[in-house]
Every structure is written in structure tokens, then in C-alpha cells.
Amino acid sequence: MIILALDFGEKRIGMAVSDSLGIIAVGLSTLERKDEASDLAAIDEVARERKVEKIVLGMPLHMSGREGIKAKEVLAFKEILSSKTGLPIDLYDERLTTVQAERVLLEADLSREKRKGKRDQLAAQIILQSYLERMRGIE
Questions:
Q1: What value, to the nearest 5°, has the Cα angle with vertex 101 and ends 97 and 107?
Q2: What's the pLDDT at 93?
Q3: Which of 8, 58, 77, 89 has the fewest other C-beta atoms within 10 Å?
Q4: pTM of the model
């Protein structure tokens, strides 16, 4: 089953896709957000091209586990995205994935400008890899 993961942000949406065996997460290009219709169309196109069967959407929770304003935005986006793509969508706790991605990029000694473009992609990849491992019972 091929799964697409999304790290939903205000300016960008990071994307990653699994291999057909559901073992490895591979980062895709980051989507620069324009407007809701364009964003949905771009995600739908990626899903169709990659033959995606499920979407995993990062759920931004507070450290306490409570939902905040961002979580409500993601829930609203999930409903619209589900209608657009017709695909099942799982939410996955994304706490600290952006921090983890930033740490990896800093260790790779990338410039601030290069990190900005890769951070969301890597966060989506981390979300998806964690999701895949949880599904296989590897935590």
C-alpha cells in the first residue's frame, strides 16, 4: 500500500511517500502554498500519479497532547482533502518532527535558505517513517 504523508504548514506543505511495501518513507518536493483550491489540486495530482491508497496527515498537538488552533485547521483541511481525493486519511501526532528535522539539517550543515525548503519535506518523511514503523509494530 502506497501512503502519502503531509506536514501541513502555513506557507508550505511537506510531502513524503512510502514504497509499495510500506517500509521506507521518501521525501517529495515541498508544496509552496497558494490557495486552498490550488493546494488541494496539487496534492490530488501527486496522489493520483503515485497511486496513493492512503494519506497520513501530521496532527499538531500541544506538548500536553491537547488540540490547539493549528489542530483545528488540520482537521478542517482533512475533511476537505478527503472529499477531494476520496482517500482515507489518518492523523498522526507530529509533535517535535519539525524540531527533529531542523536538527538533522543543522547537522548536515545546510544554509538557512536550504534548510527552509527541506525542513517540511523532512518532517513529512519523519511522520511517515514513524507511522510505517508503528503499523509494523516496530516502535
A1: 145
A2: 86
A3: 89
A4: 0.84
